[in-house]
Amino acid sequence: MSLQAPATVGMRLEEVDTPALVLELDAFESNIRRLGEAVAGQARVRAHAKTHKCPEIARRQIAAGAVGVCCQKVSEAEALVEGGVADVLVSNEVVGARKLERLAALARRARIGVCVDDAGNVRDLQAAAARAGATIDTYIELEVGMGRCGIAPGEPALGLARAILGSPGLRFAGLQAYHGRAQHFRSMQERREAVAGSAAVVRETKALLERHHIPCPCVTGAGSGTFMLEIESGAWDEIQPGSYVFMDRDYAKNEWAPPLPRFEHSLFVLATVMSRPRPEVAIVDAGLKASSVDSGMPAVWERPGLAYASASDEHGWVEIARGAAAPALGDKLLLVPGHCDPTVNLYDWYVCVRGGAVEALWPIAARGALF
Amino acid sequence: MSLQAPATVGMRLEEVDTPALVLELDAFESNIRRLGEAVAGQARVRAHAKTHKCPEIARRQIAAGAVGVCCQKVSEAEALVEGGVADVLVSNEVVGARKLERLAALARRARIGVCVDDAGNVRDLQAAAARAGATIDTYIELEVGMGRCGIAPGEPALGLARAILGSPGLRFAGLQAYHGRAQHFRSMQERREAVAGSAAVVRETKALLERHHIPCPCVTGAGSGTFMLEIESGAWDEIQPGSYVFMDRDYAKNEWAPPLPRFEHSLFVLATVMSRPRPEVAIVDAGLKASSVDSGMPAVWERPGLAYASASDEHGWVEIARGAAAPALGDKLLLVPGHCDPTVNLYDWYVCVRGGAVEALWPIAARGALF
């Protein structure tokens, strides 16, 4: 409910109040461009909006060639459609009468897809679509190695396809095949092996469907850490990268090599040094309510010898190596978040910066869109 | 900006959309009562609103005897004053011209306190108070063992007191003495030792100030894990417990013994089982954007044999022990967050429940109040 922005357009970066979520537009635009150049039309791009939660960004991804976006929650889809996005896949199961009712209502305003891994859920989804008079693109989520949601390949997947095909109001749209953990396997080799395993499951399922004369319109999945590997495998029609627009410290720990392009850090938390209690420590005003620590601490950007060592709710401990240029009280530091998605979810605004000045403020319309 | 609530008043708990932040009012009210009974007028209570970020809760704490609240950020103080709280201590340093200007403006509307640990910051604070024509209660934050902000005892603290006393518009209000890490030391003995160490620093500093004829109006500090120990030491006038209203899984791991009262879990994340991919696993719709994992995973409430094992952004893996009653697709589970403060910061509403029905919806007015 704190919708006050920490900056105004035209302000210099150093004047922005802190903590603030800063988006460096040059790097952000370069990331969008690099994705397009790497994919080069070999697959459709459906950018993942769970990362950014922002229609302004979704519109830029679509202008750069994405067919639409995906997200994880009905309330995210609502915010995106409200923000002008016409094609949204909820790349997740939606369970519960109220949620399904909202999803079906949304499918009257935009092209909406959703994933299923359970026949009872298909019945509930069909009933909601029928009540709304809506058509919903329905994807079978396959378990392809992540061990999260998803139905087993083979007969279970075939049975679910038949259930969808027998449900008026549901259009069988294909397979959701996403191996989330593989995105963060550090070596290219580990990621290649994981994607090869997922691709085998996808191919087996498509072949089974074909033997039963069920066309599979689309296989969708893949993330920022692997998408070129899915494309090279030939088993995917559509990719769902999200983090590539921002990068984060965790993704930066991956080995990056062709065919994957390198992306730049474009997302930062701007913090202020609020205490200098000892020569070797600076305390900053950005703690774990300002930069999610689930995947590790943020990194201090372009300040050699400074390391963000630990966080409490509203404070961060920045250690100053011997001989490093020490920040003074009031100095501002840019932090690279450990994990971009949950960090974005802590803010209401992107403070968009180019050449050291605030160029725009973009609302994070789906911030807190949990249900 | 998703301010939609997941429930309406009168709804049954099982109808509430998920994930939702549920406050069990009987337990919450009991926690407020138990604190009052334990303190029994031996110290003033200034409840910490960084935990709950909610004027509705602050007002109930004040009605139960608290002199006011504290918080960590100017924007939190703004939301609390806006919500009708007349006495707010920002128990933290405030650095930067824009923040100080806002703090001083607020001090014309309510009694406002703030902490300092730097003479330059005292000058900036004084200048802001002068420009606003405001008076600000100014506390010296002492380093008492936490190794975060705070000035060293002895001459540095004395010098800072003199700087405050020489600053028109600043009222020297006393000492902030808080050992945050001590709250989570597991054994009573470890916490006793930490508080004894902090108390020695406080006494030494008060004695030094007295020798220089500087009265110390108030020593404030202490949290939910130790407050009775600070009271017993006799060195504190005011305590700042926050988490006691909710409790969380991390606090529940502490040893609790007299003189500390036991508090109950009153805060929960309501989650839905959204996939049952394997007999031994249920996937719920509450991941690390729904329950902060910085202090560990949430616990599943009153469902023996179910354990929340890991989280991704929007999903949680609940492991089902052999022989345990397995939840069905669509079943709802209550989770006890690992850490209440950053979990609350993910939500816009408390869904307040009594006897299984929604009694009220309280806005989390300072959610996302970072700067």
Structure description:
Two copies of one chain form a homodimer. Chain A is of the alpha/beta class and 371 residues long. In chain A, the strands form two sheets. In chain A, strands 1, 10, 11, 12, 13, 14, 15, 16 and 17 form a nine-stranded mixed β-sheet that branches. An eight-stranded parallel β-barrel of chain A has the order 2-3-4-5-6-7-8-9, surrounded by six helices. In chain A, 60% of the residues are buried. Chain A is built from ten helices and 17 strands. At the A-B interface, strand 10 of A face strand 10 of B.
Task: List the defining traits of the structure above.
homodimer, 371 residues, alpha/beta, Lyase, Ornithine Decarboxylase, Chain A, domain 1, TIM Barrel, 2 domains, nine-stranded mixed sheet, eight-stranded parallel barrel, 25% strand, globular
Provide the fold topology.
The structure is a homodimer of 371-residue chains.
Chain A lengths: L19 E5 H15 L4 E5 L6 H9 L4 E4 L2 H9 L4 E7 L3 H10 L4 E6 L2 H14 L3 E6 L13 H11 L4 E8 L10 H24 L7 E3 L5 H7 L4 E2 L9 H4 L14 E12 L2 E4 L14 E2 L5 E6 L4 E5 L11 E5 L3 H5 L4 E6 L2 E7 L8
Parallel strand pairs in A: 1-16, 2-3, 2-9, 3-4, 4-5, 5-6, 6-7, 7-8, 8-9
Antiparallel strand pairs in A: 1-10, 10-11, 10-15, 11-14, 12-15, 13-14, 16-17
Helix pairs in contact in A: 3-4, 4-5, 5-6
Spans of chain A of at least 5 consecutive residues whose pLDDT stays below 50 are none
First-to-last CA distance of chain A: 17 Å
Sketch the topology of chain A as an H/E string, one letter per element.
Answer: EHEHEHEHEHEHEHEHEHEEEEEEHEE
Biggest sheet details of chain A: 9 strands, mixed
Fill in the CATH topology of the largest domain in chain A.
TIM Barrel
Compute the number of helices of chain A.
10
Structural class of chain A: alpha/beta
Rounded average pLDDT of chain A: 97
CATH-level-2 architecture of the largest domain in chain A: Alpha-Beta Barrel
What is the assembly state of the chains in this entry?
homodimer
Q: Estimate percent helicity of chain A.
A: 25-40%
| Chain pair forming the biggest interface | A-B, 72 and 73 residues
Q: State the CATH class of the largest domain in chain A.
A: Alpha Beta
What is the CA-atom radius of gyration of chain A, in angstroms? 22 Å
- Number of DSSP-assigned strands of chain A: 17
**Binned strand content of chain A:** 25-35%
Count of structural domains of chain A: 2
Shape of chain A: globular
